[in-house]
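Feature request, filed as a ticket because there's no other form

It would be nice if the structure record came with a short human-readable summary line next to the tokens. Right now we just get the raw output. Example of a typical job, pasted below so the devs can see what we mean:
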Amino acid sequence: MIVIGVDPGSKGAIVILVLDGVKTLSVGSSKEVSGANLYDLIAQEKADHVFIEKAQSMPKQGISSAFTYGTGYGGLLAAVEIAKVPFTLISPRIWTSKMHLGCEGDSPKEKSVKAFARIFPGMGDGIKNRNGKLHDGIVDAALIAMYGARYVVSYKTDVL
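Raw output as currently delivered:
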């Protein structure tokens, strides 16, 4: 089963999760999160399902950046519609409530990094940003994909 997880936004990412009976994560793209890139990955990878974090308004976000974010989000939705692949929009509150179970941390980002390390041991080295920290967008997109595979399409895996 091939699942794509998308963390929208300028610091987001698109991740391909290949579930082969055990567990395998293939970071398919950390390029710009756009409808065109998403469409290309769906077509190339023959994705079974796409999970996109549901857009929400952000406190203190300016009008221009909100418009840019909304436009990009609409492009992602158009890409999955045109590709005719099943997709699910997932609220951050919903996927983090399951994926952060058992993870301690002062912030949601810390909990996501710990959940990622638990579910995908050894994968963190290749996805660090310029500051040496794990790329938040890739971490979240991978967790979104795993949440979708586990709780929405009910793929049986031993990683949770």
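Something like this underneath would help us a lot:
The two ends are 17 Å apart (CA to CA).
The chain has one domain: 2-152.
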